[in-house]
Design a protein that fits this description.
482 residues; mainly beta; 19-stranded antiparallel sheet; two-stranded antiparallel sheet; 4 helices; 9% helix
């Protein structure tokens, strides 16, 4: 990570290529929301508790990776016209512009989230159920408007205008203290207090981008800003804007450490309607990640429309045909060329250091579960989630079928429809005194090509963990663990 522009370019394209091998939603699997033995469901609703207490195992206590998006990596990669086992980018001359652009949306959104449990403890005391969690969380997202790709691919004598070109990453440690308890026989409430330690943050957003191209000149007028809290500083280019202002060339001397601090809270409640409406029916609601992080000494940069600047265009992205006797250009070379070109595309002026604040993506959840009267070990649930995260906000609705055949095993199947598409998930959970293991997914990987590149969208997740469970099993809707 030697400079800011290189990070921007990687966020735009390289992350798209490698996302499925790196990171993906925080918190816990939605598929396990109604699973009584799920030790982490309190992260979705602090009023929910597991049937047992637990202590997490080192390194393997819980890992969850999730990707979301309304486009797939296959929208940007194509088979080489010279070798079907090689891939070329959408910028290659063999890729038809109409075919490529026809695969895109007006707003092309990609999210990559990671939740890694460092330590977790849950136990019964103080009149209720208590949790302590320390997790590392990473949320990276980008929105690339259709107009940006249209400009890159066509580059004709035309005018292009688009907005909300956004790239953001926030990385932090989350220390949460939770408590839930029964208020009445039917009502349980819970809360989690979060202490947030900022490890790294970058937010680059262009609210306006107007590009004029002609045979004689290419000019860009933009309104945008960048805020980066990674412990380093900007470097500068010899090039100037048309109004003579110095632009940023990069960001260097990234330093590990604490670059921000914040606080947050989760609130939740569950209510058993068996005594007032229908036997076996319960409802629940929560709001999680309600908070913010203040990033200190963030390097700030901005550009205004009056600071127009010239751009010479994207260089040749082709690979050479073996018949031409030239060396084949690898996919990595193609990405590198594109990143070099994009370095010249963004022009931001240093605005000094300052403190900036960011939310952590608050989420509202509401659920309902019905236990089957003919077989009380089987239930069906509905869970709706809305994420409040500016341009990266989304909605999800899941139907979940839960089966707990005995005091040790839990299984769940889910179907989800969301802003980014639909998918199916599953989860298996083993819990007995001394041992807990879970594995599952909210959305299995969709259609892929022979290089295992997802073609239709990027919706996929995986979560697993190994922990030490304790306490006697007692199936319940209350917060207490016996």
């Amino acid at each position: 990570m030697k400079n800011m522009i290189s990070n921007i370019k990687r966020a735009l394209f390289s992350v798209v290529l490698f996302a499925l091998a790196t990171t993906m939603g925080a918190q816990a699997l939605r598929t396990g929301y109604f699973m009584d033995g799920n030790i982490y469901r309190h992260r979705l609703n602090p009023a929910l508790s597991s049937t047992r207490g637990h202590v997490s195992s080192p390194l393997l206590g819980g890992i969850q990776v999730t990707t979301m998006g309304n486009v797939g990596v296959g929208s940007f990669l194509y088979e080489s016209p010279y070798n079907n086992d090689e891939l070329v980018t959408f910028m290659h001359h063999s890729v038809d512009a109409a075919d490529f652009l026809g695969e895109l949306e007006d707003e092309n959104i990609m999210r990559f989230d990671l939740d890694f449990t460092i330590a977790s403890v849950a136990f019964n005391a103080f009149g209720g159920f208590n949790t302590i969690d320390l997790t590392l969380r990473s949320n990276t997202a980008m929105n690339i408007p259709f107009g940006m790709f249209q400009f890159m691919k066509e580059m004709g004598n035309n005018d292009y205008s688009f907005s909300d070109l956004t790239m953001q990453t926030r990385n932090f440690a989350d220390l949460s203290l939770g408590h839930s308890r029964k208020i009445t026989e039917d009502l349980t409430v819970g809360a989690r207090l979060k202490f947030l330690f900022g490890l790294g943050y970058a937010d680059v957003k262009f609210d306006q981008m107007d590009i004029h191209t002609s045979a004689s000149r290419w000019e860009i007028a933009a309104r945008g800003e960048a805020n980066i809290a990674l412990g380093g500083a900007y470097t500068y280019s010899d090039e100037l804007t048309n109004t003579g202002k110095t632009v940023i060339d990069g960001y260097e001397d990234v330093a590990a450490g604490l670059h921000g601090f914040g606080m947050g809270i989760d609130l939740g409640a569950t209510y058993d309607l068996s005594n007032v409406l229908l036997e076996g029916l319960s409802v629940s609601a929560s709001i999680t990640d309600l908070g913010y992080i203040s990033w200190s000494k963030a390097a700030q940069a901005a550009i205004a429309p009056e600071d127009t600047y010239k751009f010479e265009g994207f260089r040749d992205m082709s690979i050479h045909s073996p018949e031409d006797g030239g060396d084949s250009k690898t996919l990595d070379d193609q990405w590198s060329t594109m990143r070099d070109d994009l370095e010249d595309f963004f022009a931001l002026e240093d605005k000094g250091e300052g403190s900036v604040s960011s939310g952590i993506g608050a989420k509202f959840n509401i659920g309902a579960e019905y236990k089957m009267p003919f077989y009380n070990k089987l239930s069906a649930g509905f869970l709706y989630t809305h994420c409040f995260d500016d341009v990266f906000s989304y909605d999800q609705a899941s139907l979940v079928l839960n089966l707990s055949p005995n005091n040790v095993l839990d299984f769940a199947l889910s179907g989800t429809a969301s802003t980014f598409g639909a998918g199916f998930g599953a989860m298996a959970n083993i819990h007995c005194p001394g041992f807990n293991f879970f594995i599952g997914s909210d959305c299995f990987l969709s259609k892929v090509n022979k290089q295992f590149v997802p073609l239709e969208n990027m919706n996929a997740s995986v979560s697993f963990g190994i922990n030490v469970a304790f306490g006697n099993y007692k199936k319940k809707t209350s917060a207490a663990v016996e």
